[in-house]
Amino acid sequence: MLKTYRHDNVVTAWVSRACQAAAIVLMSSWAGGIATAQPPRSLAIINSASGGDVIAPGSIASAFGRQVGASTVSATSLPLPTTLGGVSIDVTDSANALKMASLFYVSPNQINFVVPDSTKTGTATVKVLGGANSPQSTTVQVAAVAPGLFTANGAGVGVAAAIAIRRILATQTDDEVPVFHCDANGCSSMGIAMGPDAQVFLELFGTGIKGRSSLANVTATIGGENVDVLFAGAQGQFPGLDQVNLSLPQGLHTRGETDVVLTVDGHVANKVRVNLKDKDSN
After folding, report:
1. What does the pLDDT look like over 145-161, one tens digit per residue?
2. CATH pick for 17-143 out of 2.60.40.10, 2.60.120.200, 2.30.30.240, 3.90.1150.10
């Protein structure tokens, strides 16, 4: 079930043009229209993309609680620090091994961090140190995969924080196509033009995916129709961020706004939406 905690903006100085949707992932508002929601009374750990209560090794997670940080500060370079604004996070896994998490962002009510890659599956204890109300600790379930997809509004629902690529068949050149538009009124989908002149690919961004057992065990549907998964793994530039590349069949050109459902090793990610249209339609 999607949590309704506030997700403050995370602004970084290392955003590249090649990762526009990844930038949305890191700068978007987690709860969108529910920004007045209060943090939980006790510490809670969630998947930063889906809001689910299971996390995975090497994934991006969020810690919500009252006064978990004394100030608001964001990491501005790589590698990410393990102490930020005087705050650190210890993760003790099911094998009783303790590791420090890398931190993206710290604020009085929220911390965004990367779960250590070597964290064992099972019940882990997460402890926040150095905040205004520390130490605080809680337990969370860790699984090999905990797939979550980021959305443009940061809420875990709605239009995907994604990039579409149209490969023109005659010239074998690629054109980047916008998937979403965000303004003061929120985020909406933009039509991805499909037609016989081009092959269209969709690049989704998420977390908790790279631990998949094999690419064959990653499946996706769009509008209920199976689509080919070409890649599912670490995005490679942003810590904790994963990428999934899909090839879209021409038969989807009249679907309009529709659901994308990703399944990784039997675990279903949060649904996201894209808008598919015929290239000759207005």
Report:
1. 999 999 988 889 999 99
2. 2.60.40.10
